[in-house]
Amino acid sequence: MINPREMTGLQIMQAFAEGVFPAPGIAKTVPMEPSEAEHGRMVFFATADARHTNPLGGVHGGFAATVLDSVTGCATHTVLQAGEGYGTTDLNIKMCRPIPFGTRMIAEGKVINIGRTLVISEGYLRDEAGKLYAHATATNMILRQPRTDSSG
């Protein structure tokens, strides 16, 4: 049996992309399908549908925010060691144009800086022709398990 606590973040994200691990609940609410996972980089496919409307009938900005938070967080996850987690501390999003319904979007997240306690990444939401719909930068805090040995 596979124990995720013994896997690096990259191994977990690769297993997720290969379908070894089931999709998290958010990937059902906002349809996201992992496509690629490599050290410092993650790619998803995402498609907005009628569940993602705003009061004006367009795609709610929360769709892009959720996809970009997810892809930048998963990119961060790819650089973590076994037993480490992360949490988003800051997410800045720029919407470039309205996201269309029923169009498969490509979300790409890339780590741009790894520190001792923080990882900074950026994400892009584009259509298959490469047109940019939204851009984000994210800061994630590395969450480590407390040491249990006596070396302090």
Features of this protein?
alpha+beta; Thiol Ester Dehydrase, Chain A; globular; 3 helices; 152 residues
What is the residue-averaged pLDDT?
93
Helix- and strand-based class? alpha+beta
Strand order of the largest sheet: 1-2-4-5-6-3
Count of DSSP-assigned helices: 3
Number of strands: 6
Structure description:
It contains three helices and six strands. With 152 residues, the chain is of the alpha+beta class. The longest helix has 17 residues, at 61-77. Helix content is 20%, strand content 37%. The relative contact order is 0.19. A hairpin with a 2-residue loop joins strand 1 and strand 2 (41-46). The chain starts with 8 loop residues before the first helix and ends in a 9-residue tail after the last strand. The protein is globular and about 55 Å long. It has one domain (4-143): Thiol Ester Dehydrase, Chain A (Roll). The protein has a six-stranded antiparallel sheet.
Short description:
The chain has 152 residues and is an alpha+beta fold. Helices cover 20% and strands 37% of the residues.
Write the SSE topology.
Blueprint lengths: L8 H9 L8 H4 L2 E7 L2 E6 L14 H17 L7 E11 L9 E10 L3 E10 L4 E12 L9
Antiparallel strand pairs: 1-2, 2-4, 3-6, 4-5, 5-6
